[in-house]
């Protein structure tokens, strides 16, 4: 399980990540909506 941790909060967790141009990203469905606006999620 992959976790994103920021200030002791887990805004995203997933069993997989997506590799784009050498960077790891969480799938949009793994983001906790309380910590992201719809605009931020739709910028994939």
Oligomer: single chain
Q: Can you tell me the number of structural domains?
A: 1
Beta percentage is 35-45%
Helical content (DSSP H or I, runs of 4+): under 10%
Query: Nearest-angstrom radius of gyration?
Result: 10 Å
Structural class: mainly beta
Instruction: For the largest sheet, list the strands in their spatial order.
Output: 1-2
Number of strands: 4
- Low-confidence segments: none
Mean pLDDT: 89
Largest sheet: 2 strands, antiparallel
- Spell the H/E element sequence: EEEEH
Question: What would the principal axes of the Cα set say about the shape?
Answer: globular
Can you tell me about this structure?
With 44 residues, the protein is mainly β. It has one domain. The protein has one helix spanning 38-41; strands at residues 2-6, 9-14, 18-20, 23-25. The protein has a two-stranded antiparallel ribbon. The mean pLDDT is 89.
Could you provide a short overview of the structure?
The chain has 44 residues and is mainly beta. It has 1 helix and 4 strands, in the order ββββα.
């Amino acid at each position: 399980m992959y976790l994103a941790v920021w200030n002791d909060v887990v805004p995203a967790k997933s069993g997989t990540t997506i590799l784009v141009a050498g960077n790891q990203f969480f799938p949009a469905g793994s983001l906790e909506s309380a910590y992201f606006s719809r605009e931020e999620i739709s910028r994939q």
